Amino acid sequence: MDAKLIGSIISDKRKALGITQEELGGAVGVSTQAVSKWENGGAPDVELLPAIADKLGVSVDALFGRDIAPDDAVDALCAALTATDDGERYTKLYNILWKIQRCMFDGGHSDELAEWDEEKSEYFDRYSENLSDKGISLMCLDPKKPYYALFLESSDRTQFLCGIGAESYAALFAALSDADAVRAIFYLERRTQKPFTPKLFVRELGLAPERAQAVADALVKLKILEMSVIELDDEEKTVYTHRYDQYLVPFFTFARNLIHRPGAFSYYCGNRTNPYLMPRATENNAGEH
């Protein structure tokens, strides 16, 4: 058994998943010092290997440096995520996605990448983008606003995006061109989801009553608010309910990137030659004649 090889693999897999030595040791019933000893040339007891492999989401064969099939790698990744506490699962997935993003460039093995992993807390306002004719992957490495987005190439995307008509987009952007409406959205996304009346906007945003009502009406049209009528003390009252919208954070995140274009990158590849909205087949054919 090659102790140095096993220790090196354990170290690499642990760091890639964002697992500390203490967490790995706790999962298999040994001390942090024992894990450190493995990673510095020692070897774990044979009976511990299955538990170590389970925690790292790999096969026992992988701990010995034996290649595994792609399907096995996917299964191992899923096992690693499943074995992670819900509270840490998204963080682990993000770290895995960063490793995948790096592999799109040079296989993820350069010294600079390892250095970034050690000092990533200092990398504010840093991005990574891979723009190719097969798709685009966009990632923000800033711990204040981390995200990962993948868009595979699709010949149907043009029809999907343009099919609803420019007027539909114009109506959305016209509504969002109202600064008070945007301020209201940001406020609502931070508060509880209790029903309210437009007086909330008067009190919290400093709007005049008529203006508060207009903003509420605009947000109803955008389906950001739901309106209902309740009977209270023999009087009907119109109230509004806001449900947290999973599309708003990505929307405003990319809108911010349009306003303040990312300029600092850890790995950028812009070798795309095709337009992002691909011509439809009929348009391609027409261009050939």
Q: How would you describe what is shown here?
A:
- The protein has 289 residues and is α+β, with helices and mostly antiparallel strands.
- The chain has a domain at 3-84: lambda repressor-like DNA-binding domains (434 Repressor (Amino-terminal Domain)).
- It is 53% helix and 14% strand.
- It contains 15 helices and six strands.
- A four-stranded mixed sheet has the order 3-2-1-6, covered by helices on one side. A two-stranded antiparallel sheet has the order 4-5.
- Strand 4 (225-232) and strand 5 (235-242) form a beta hairpin.
- Helix 2 (21-28) crosses helix 3, helix 11 (179-188) crosses helix 13 and helix 12 crosses helix 13.
- The longest helix has 21 residues, at 86-106.
- The N and C termini lie far apart (67 Å).
- Residues 282-289 have low confidence and may be disordered.
Poorly predicted spans: 282-289
DSSP strand content: 5-15%
Tell how many strands the DSSP assignment holds: 6
In the CATH hierarchy, what is the superfamily of the domain at 3-84? lambda repressor-like DNA-binding domains
Helix content: 40-55%
How would you sum up the major sheet?
Answer: 4 strands, mixed
End-to-end C-alpha gap:
67 Å
CATH class of the domain at 3-84: Mainly Alpha
CA radius of gyration: 26 Å
User: What is the element string, with H for helices and E for strands?
Assistant: HHHHHHHHEEEHHHHHEEHEH
Structural class: alpha+beta
The strands making up the biggest β-sheet line up spatially as 3-2-1-6
Specify the overall morphology.
Answer: elongated
From the 3D coordinates, which CATH architecture of the domain at 3-84 would you assign? Orthogonal Bundle
SS element count, helices: 15
Average pLDDT works out at 85
